[in-house]
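The data are quoted verbatim for reference:
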Amino acid sequence: MSIEERIRELGIELPPPPAPVASYVPVRVSGSLAFVAGQVPLMDGVPLHPGRLGGDVDVERGIEAARRAALQSLSALRAELGSLDRVRGIAQVTVFVASTPGFTDQPRVANGASDLFVEVFGDAGRHARAAVGVVDLPLGVCVEVAVVAELA
């Protein structure tokens, strides 16, 4: 089954491809790798669950935001590549989590993105990962996800 068929089977609807909000491109292909710029969780152009984990955003909302940012990463890849069937797998994911001092559940929040990639790509979606706590993120969002995908 192709990745595009798998997405339809799972009932996943990808959001519109993200437009850059600064001086960068959403995806840069270099050789057999596609580098997806950090994606922040937006719903209809509005930040999803703004704030910080450990403060005004709970872990479940952080997981939801990470999943949404991962969906936006897939949308950016599809827009650049024409089809997600060109993706052989997900090589690396970096998840930045806006956190209050003392919050240490960044890996759990990052699972929102990681679990989506495994759901869509199966074993090819398993990846190396960093989950990093930061003070603030663009647009006041709670999560940002950057992805490196391996291309067929």
In short: Residues 59-81 form the longest helix (23 residues). The chain has a mean pLDDT of 96. The two ends are 15 Å apart (CA to CA). The longest strand covers residues 87-98.
